[in-house]
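Customer escalation, tier 2.

The customer says the design service returned an amino acid string that "doesn't look like it belongs to this structure." They asked us to rerun it and document both sides in this ticket. The original structure tokens are below, unchanged.
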């Protein structure tokens, strides 16, 4: 690794077909760039059509990158997208479930019920919907790598972000269960828990809340999407062969377990 940046280290994904929810921005988009660089065909799933078009324009015209407007809160829509991807390319090898929202900042006893339900629908139900739609295709193909994006907040909890913490803690538990269910196959399902990362999601939070998150990171700064994507890239590779139902951290030293 000496003399190379994270972005320059390539992993071979030639012939692999990847679906990335929340793929139009942030960690999802950074991961898409890494997988495409390695030769994967990548389908970006996102509810924001404008952001999808903008994201696709960041790749070379000849890059094997397609876009699909997908609402991860609607299981039928996710099934449609997964079935469409398999019909087009014959299989699905990789799933990165990164679609997520932060929700507003309130103490738990004042948290708006509508906002609570929305956060859980996107962050937790959305992950389940993606896995539920994609795993059958991976089982048919006899191979798969799944990376569900959780958060350090799901392990430690963040005050005034109980919905987000609960949803991401649920992603951790769900992925642990999924990994065990798939342990007899060649499909590996793992999750990653980033700390605060420089993405558009931070704009959904109060500035003082973001400052508090930054203060908890021993490295003294926010993470970058490409830094998280580097670990996800390995998690999506054939080299991630003896890890399943595992939780990986990308927290700048914040994680304590």
């Amino acid at each position: 690794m000496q003399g190379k940046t994270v972005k320059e280290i390539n992993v071979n994904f030639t012939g692999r077909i990847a679906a990335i929810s929340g793929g139009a921005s942030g960690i999802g988009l950074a991961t898409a760039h890494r997988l495409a660089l390695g030769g994967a065909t990548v389908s970006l799933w996102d509810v924001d059509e404008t952001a999808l078009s903008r994201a696709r324009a960041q790749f070379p015209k000849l890059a094997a990158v397609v876009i699909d407007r997908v609402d991860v809160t609607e299981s039928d829509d996710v099934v449609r997208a997964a079935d469409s991807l398999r019909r087009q390319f014959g299989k699905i090898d990789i799933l990165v479930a990164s679609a997520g929202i932060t929700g507003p900042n309130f103490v738990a006893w004042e948290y708006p019920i509508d906002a609570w339900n929305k956060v859980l629908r996107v962050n937790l139900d959305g992950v389940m919907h993606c896995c539920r739609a994609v795993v059958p295709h991976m089982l048919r193909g006899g191979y798969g790598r799944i990376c569900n994006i959780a958060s350090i907040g799901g392990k430690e909890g963040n005050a005034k972000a109980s919905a987000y913490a609960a949803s991401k803690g649920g992603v951790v538990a769900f992925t642990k269960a999924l990994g065990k269910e798939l342990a007899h196959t060649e499909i590996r399902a793992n999750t990653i828990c980033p700390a605060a990362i420089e993405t558009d999601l931070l704009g959904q939070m109060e500035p003082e809340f973001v400052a508090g998150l930054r203060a908890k990171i021993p490295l003294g700064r926010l993470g970058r999407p490409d830094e998280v994507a580097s670990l996800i890239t390995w998690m999506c590779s054939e080299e991630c062969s003896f890890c399943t139902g595992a939780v990986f951290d990308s927290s700048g030293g914040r994680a304590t377990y």
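Tier 2 assessment: The sequence is consistent with the input. Residues 113-141 form the longest helix (29 residues). The first strand starts at residue 17 and ends at 21. Sent an explanation to the customer and offered a walkthrough call.
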